Amino acid sequence: MPLRLGSAAHVCDHGPAVPTRATTTADAREKARRRPRPQPALLLLWSPRAGVVRAPPRLLGPGRHPLGREIDPAAGIALDDPRASRLHATICVGSGEGRVQLTDEGSRNGTWVNGERIEEAWLGDGDLLRLADTFLLFRCLASDLDDAAVPGLLGRAPSIHELRRTLAAVAQHDVAVLVSGESGSGKELVARAIHELAGRRGPFVAVNCAAIPAELAESQLFGHVAGAFTGARADHPGFFRAAHGGTIFLDEVGDLPLGQQPKLLRALEERAVTPVGGTGPAAFDARVVAATNADLSAAVAAGAFRGELHARLGEFSLHVPTLRERREDVLVLLAAAYGGELPPLEAELVAALLAHPWPYNVRELRAVASELKVRAGSRSILALDLVAHRLALAGRRAPEHGSGPEEEPATAVRPGGRAAPPARAELEQMLTACRGNVQAVARATGRSRMQIYRWIEQHGLDLERYRGG
């Protein structure tokens, strides 16, 4: 049964128009009062005919916004989707607090919000919408959408707009930058962008602090002179002097041995290093960018990281958003990793890609793109079965609908919800008879392909096993 979602949490959070007297000055209150409220907007992510869409967001003013296959673009949002209804759904934007409601207009193939079929729902920033086989993202956007050109940093998510603007500004100042973010989110890409934007002519030297043995850390970072220790046959400049005139990137700086942290702090303060076995300091000129996926404040509190070094590295701090916070960028980044343009995608693959939590962020997405490319072979359409084992299918409810266009009789609609899986032997028999063709099993059982994939996963079956015979 379609859901009615009416939680107060599903609204654009504009905050109070005027902060209280206890928390701000009169001037700040006036500035806050004049600040424009976030603007509701829709981003078209993917449609059956257009594929991956890179168009700018469609801003939604107060009033009613119809969505459907035969909607005049001047009056609403036209869906280029043969399975969409003529009038599929309506978005209503309030004129007061800006609450936004999505209503299904009795569509043949359903309206979905974050994987749940709905009749009505209040929308919140970041909600994923599926109308038939068209995918959109709802955003509450700040009125300031200014951007900056940053090499290699793709995306149209608000957090990426803000990151690009900040990078362009901080790159012009010679301050140490501490970049935080989850593993695989692109911290080194951000560091390289700072290096490029700063216009430094020297090299970009990346140092993985987690991979440096404690006994070699001082030598690798600051260098050594010949004969300083067994095996030191020649002078070695170390990473800091190797980065002279450029940028040194200290990745996973939180893993630097505690005993080396005071020496690193001294080098940063004096802009000079003393090589192991040397008699005096050697100056270096390198921009310092450090990165961590750990909470350095917690490490300082636990005595695992020096507070003075944390303060020195973080003269300016940046945070790289996770991929799950920027779902509008998933398909664009997938296309870039695939080679620029994606072949046509099956709608269920699109749904799985957009709903996946991406715990390893862009690094994981690149792996999915590589596997798609390898497994695709001569296929003209990329389907979910190619990478189903990589994506989080468990617990996801998928659209249960007929495969035909909107004009089919409404009596053909199958109820939403999850069916109990057939017995393992029965499912194996169906997969064998259909030679592992998930679409054929879906037609035979009257279920969606996503439902069949869930059954396969629940029984722990290897789909490739049934495709050979």
Descriptive notes:
By secondary structure, this protein is an alpha/beta fold. It folds into 3 domains: 3-141, Tumour Suppressor Smad4 (Sandwich), CATH 2.60.200.20; 158-319, 3-Layer(aba) Sandwich (Rossmann fold), CATH 3.40.50; 325-466, Helicase, Ruva Protein, domain 3, CATH 1.10.8.60. Helices cover 28% and strands 18% of the residues. It is built from 14 helices and 19 strands. The chain has helices at 26-34, 158-170, 187-198, 217-222, 238-242, 261-270, 296-301, 307-313, 330-338, 347-355, 361-376, 424-433, 438-445, 449-459; strands at 3-5, 39-47, 51-52, 58-59, 63-68, 77-78, 89-93, 100-104, 111-113, 116-122, 128-131, 134-141, 177-180, 204-208, 247-251, 272-273, 282-283, 287-292, 316-319. Strands 1, 2, 3, 4, 5, 6, 7, 8, 9, 10, 11 and 12 form a 12-stranded mixed sheet that branches. A 5-stranded parallel sheet has the order 14-15-18-13-19. Strands 16-17 form a two-stranded antiparallel sheet. A hairpin with an 8-residue loop joins strand 16 and strand 17. The radius of gyration is 27 Å and the shape is globular. The model is unreliable at 6-10, 14-21, 394-403 and 407-419 (pLDDT under 50).
